[in-house]
Amino acid sequence: MAFANGHITAYAVEATEFPDLARRYHVTGVPKTVVDEGVEILGALPEDAYIEQALTGKFTIDNSEAAKRSE
Questions:
Q1: Nearest-CA neighbor of 13 among 4, 21, 5, 23?
Q2: pLDDT of 7-22, one tens digit each?
Q3: C-alpha–C-alpha distance, residues 44 and 69, integer Å
Q4: Angle at 68 between CA 67 and CA 71, to 5 degrees
């Protein structure tokens, strides 16, 4: 998203090289995304689900998507 929009700033941090940041943000797995100190996204998500969670702080999944994941 940051690449497509100049109003978004993103940083990639190697957790093992910055253990203080990893502790501060309670990194227990990667990838982990923190949005405005309030929304935390852990793991890889499909693009639409990632955007929804980043913007709303909520993650919802419809039954058709759930079925695809269980296959």
A1: 21
A2: 888 888 999 999 999 9
A3: 13
A4: 90
